[in-house]
Specification:
- It is a single chain.
- The chain has a 22-stranded antiparallel β-barrel.
- β16 and β17 form a beta hairpin.
- By secondary structure, the protein is mainly β.
- The chain is globular.
- It contains nine helices and 46 strands.
Length: about 900
């Protein structure tokens, strides 16, 4: 496997080097004299670089400006001349700081384009990194940053594509391309709405928290996952992914980690992009049109984005390895999708001490595909989604280096399937038609403050304190044609009040000169929430950062996280089945031939929150003897308890499998039987579904099986993340190399206290045990060549007996990007991407039925080679 990755990287690097033209390293700058802040913002736009500065420090400083052909380094040095500021570099980070402390007046090479960097950008706010609410605080947990430039040079045209390429993320869950039948990995593994969900560590899309500028995105569908694809990529500055539990900072859902999508700020100008792409094996024809505009007027600014995209489906007949599905004409393995998205973000300083900001978005999407269940029966799915959200905030500078922020949010996600139709392929006659609608609504209010508490020899002790209120509402409606008006099928709401505190204590600083302790800091947080549904929960987290020597930092963290039961799990309809005891495996359990069984399914309002204990430890090494090199490693463990599951998955073993023993009640009394009817809210003797085909007789009930949602499972996950980055000058330009890999070394589940251990990684429909990504990027002036090699290890196919380990999948991507600042038509950019250039097919896995795909669609893509060309015109 390592040899395969190394060879693939060597090939792609050679292509980059050999194809590199002797492009000029200078470009034309036109930045007038004036405010240093405005000059730095213009420099970011004209150079394409990313820098960090404190807006409150540079606000009153002046810059002489710069004009004419310059290198990026020379232009930045000219802007800073006489301003009282200089550049400071820390590995890949370029920061603008006050001069006089040994800082240089020249810039370092720009950040490497790696999916594991910690680059920042020029933003008009104090720097707060995801994983902490304290300005300037460094989280003791690993943070991966993906910038807008990195997404473009990776050939990713949506945030969902970028997340699915991240080695620490699992592409199962609510994602396009997850085929019907993948639900064996859990009910969340299905493409219902065409959205894209985050699924860090494969712990579930509902166990990863997604934020937009620090505010939660609304839940999508019924699985309590957030839809990443509602945010147009043109509006994104970067995405920060915290790879650790963080409920002490952010509350529920932050078990696997947190992704914070950070929007562009103070963008000046306008641009329009048109993109066309296709899969060379057929299908997946893509169109995307994007407009972006922004303006800054000193005391404020705004950003407006509109995006329309459309892709056609991929049919099974267009892939040779799925020829056996030809008996279902039109069978589709990838949905056709049409989406429109709009976003507005603005800020205005109302006075010297207060600023108003607002982020808002709207998305409308249609997603459709056709599948079959036999040679004569097919089902057509069409879903419609409408998503919107608005998040205003007031920020106050209250003096003495303290600030106060009052924020709120309101969001809604409505998805429906107005055309879920099953029909006879031969006659075209519809046999059933179902209309489902899921509505998720949330609203919140928060007040928080942050500032300096006191000073220690190691620096300022800073704290963040806050509290707030949040409410979520869910409704699931089910309308079967001919049944009249829609009737509630399930739903409810839950609200909570919370308070939290966080502290960062710099115990030792570099200035103290202590051997082997260049710096040492402790950060700690605690959060308490009280929910209407189950009461209170408290989650702490503590971590430490130890700078052993220059270039070598160690870190460790411990914490607890939680996830509240989804509203579907609490409030979905309670269903009572009457069936034969034989159907439940009663014959082997001694049931009489005419024995009856009662099966309970549905919501449970007595559910407790899922809880996790997380540990992580790692290091970052930037050797001085190899400038531009950064190595990073992280070990993690997640002990995830009280996981909510529907425990009965193999119905004919319900009365015989030891794993189900605690959910089966033999020889129930009359009171037990009456309690089952009361639980379902049905008159005694009445069932939601009678599968027996004969009359109910209470004296013949052999057993009651409880299959409703319950806190029963426990997962244990351990693994290692490794990454490397290297940036240098080469072949007349800038060369950046990167590597990022994630190994899951332990992944075990106990579905109940009596069940045996099963794997939740390395098996079909669960995360592969290893995912890796190697990258190379060469650039000079406005020209860039980039390549990435992606590897996903094989999984064990449990659909056959004995189980078989299937093959792995390795793909190579290539991107050519060119920006011309001046031309007869003005500034423009061309981007050509070839994804999966060698057209690797997903490894074979036995289908779970005659009319299911023969590969694991949660791990491997069926798109094959795709090509896209984008033209961006800047105004």
């Amino acid at each position: 496997m390592i040899r395969t990755l190394a060879a693939a990287l060597a090939t792609s690097t050679c292509i980059v080097a050999l194809a590199a033209p002797a492009a000029a390293q200078t470009r034309d700058y036109n930045i007038p004299a004036g405010s240093l802040k405005a000059a730095l913002d213009a420099y970011v736009r004209q150079s394409g670089r990313q820098i960090v500065y404190r807006a409150d420090e540079v606000r009153t400083a002046r810059s002489p400006g710069v004009r004419g052909q310059q290198s990026a380094d020379a232009a930045l040095a000219a802007l800073l001349a006489g301003s009282g500021f200089a550049t400071r570099t820390d590995g890949n980070l370029i920061a603008i700081v006050k001069a006089g402390n040994g800082d240089s007046g020249s810039a370092a090479p720009p950040p490497a384009a790696a999916y594991a960097g910690r680059d920042d950008d020029a933003v008009d706010r104090a720097i707060v990194v995801t994983g902490s609410r304290i300005r300037g605080g460094r989280p003791s947990s690993p943070v991966v940053t993906i910038s807008a430039e990195e997404m473009r040079l990776a050939g990713h045209n949506s945030l969902g594509e970028a997340m699915r390429a991240l080695p620490q993320n699992f592409s199962g869950g609510q994602n396009p391309g997850v085929a019907p039948g993948a639900t064996a990995g859990g009910p969340a593994n299905q493409n219902v709405t065409g959205s894209s969900s985050l699924n860090l560590r494969g712990l579930g899309p509902d166990a990863s928290l997604t934020l937009l500028n620090g505010t939660r995105l609304p839940y999508d569908g019924f699985t309590q996952a957030a839809d990443l694809s509602v945010i147009p990529t043109a509006a994104i500055q970067r995405v920060e992914i915290l790879l650790d539990g963080a409920s002490a900072i952010y509350g529920s859902d932050a078990v696997g980690g947190v992704a914070n999508v950070i929007l562009r700020r103070d963008y000046e100008g306008a641009q329009a992009t048109a993109r066309y792409g296709w899969a060379t094996d057929g299908g997946y024809q893509q169109q995307q049109y994007t407009v972006l505009g922004g303006h800054n007027w000193g005391s404020g600014g705004l950003l407006i984005t509109g995006d329309y995209s459309h892709n056609s489906s991929v049919k099974a007949s267009q892939r040779d390895y799925l020829s056996y599905l030809s008996s279902v004409p039109g069978y589709e393995i990838y949905p056709r999708n049409k989406q429109f998205s709009a976003l507005f973000s603005g800020h205005q300083r109302l006075a010297d001490f207060v600023e108003l900001s607002v982020d808002s978005y709207y998305t409308s999407r249609i997603n459709a595909f056709l599948t079959g269940s036999s040679s004569t029966v097919a089902t057509y799915f069409e879903s419609k989604s409408e998503v919107w959200g608005v998040a205003p905030a007031l920020s106050f500078d209250i003096g003495q280096d303290w600030n106060l922020r009052l924020s709120g949010s309101m969001s809604r996600n409505v998805s429906s399937t107005p055309a879920r139709r099953t029909f006879n392929i031969l006659t075209g006659v519809t046999t059933s038609r179902t209309n489902l609608r899921n509505t998720n609504h949330s609203e919140s209010v928060a007040l928080e403050t942050e500032g300096r508490l006191f000073s220690l020899p190691g620096g300022d002790v800073r704290v963040s304190l806050g509290g707030g209120w949040r409410r979520s509402f869910f409704e699931n409606r089910d309308l079967i044609t001919g049944a009249g008006t829609a009737t509630p099928n399930g739903g409810g709401d839950d609200s909570s009040y919370y308070g939290y505190g966080e502290v960062n204590i710099p115990v030792v600083s570099e200035e103290q000169g202590i051997p082997l302790v260049r710096r040492f800091a402790i950060n700690a947080a605690v959060r308490h929430e009280n929910y209407d549904s189950f009461g209170g929960t408290t989650t702490p987290k503590v971590g430490a950062l130890w700078g052993v020597a220059k270039g070598l930092d160690l870190r460790a963290s411990w914490g607890r996280s939680f996830k509240v039961p989804t509203l579907l799990q609490q409030y979905t309809s309670r269903i009572l089945y009457l069936t034969s005891a034989a159907y439940l495996g009663g014959a082997q359990a001694g049931a009489p031939a005419d024995g009856q069984g009662i099966l309970l399914f549905g919501g449970n309002q007595d559910l407790r929150p899922e809880r996790a204990e997380t540990l992580s430890a790692g290091f970052t090494f930037k050797p001085e003897f190899v400038p531009g090199l950064e190595l990073e490693a992280n070990w993690f463990q997640v002990d995830y308890r009280d996981r909510i599951i529907a425990p009965i998955t193999v119905f004919n073993q319900a009365l015989t499998n030891p794993a189900y023993a605690e959910f089966a009640q033999f020889s129930p009394s009359a009171a037990d039987i009456n309690a089952a009817f009361a639980w379902a809210g049905l008159p005694q003797g009445t069932f939601t579904y009678n599968l027996l085909g004969s009359a109910y007789n209470s004296s013949k009930v052999f057993a009651i099986v409880s299959g409703q949602y319950t806190n029963a499972a426990r997962d244990l996950l351990r693994g290692i993340d490794l990454s490397a980055r290297y940036a240098t000058r080469a072949v007349g330009g800038r060369l950046a190399l990167s590597a990022n890999g994630s190994w899951i070394t332990t992944a075990a589940r106990h579905a109940s206290s009596t069940s045996p251990e099963t794997a939740i990684a390395g098996s079909i429909f669960y995360p592969a045990k290893f995912r890796g990504r190697l990258g190379a990027n060469w650039s000079s002036g406005g020209f860039s060549l980039a390549s990435n090699v992606n590897h996903i290890s094989g999984v064990i196919d449990t659909n056959v007996t004995p189980n078989v380990r299937r093959g792995s999948m390795t793909t190579a991507d290539f991107v050519v990007d060119y920006r011309q600042a001046q031309s007869p038509i003005g500034a423009f950019r061309l981007n050509l991407s070839v994804m999966n250039a060698f057209n690797a097919a997903p490894p074979y896995a036995a289908p779970i039925g005659n009319f299911r795909v023969a590969y694991d669609s949660t791990n491997y893509s069926s798109l094959g080679r795709t090509v896209s060309l984008a033209l961006t015109k800047e105004f």
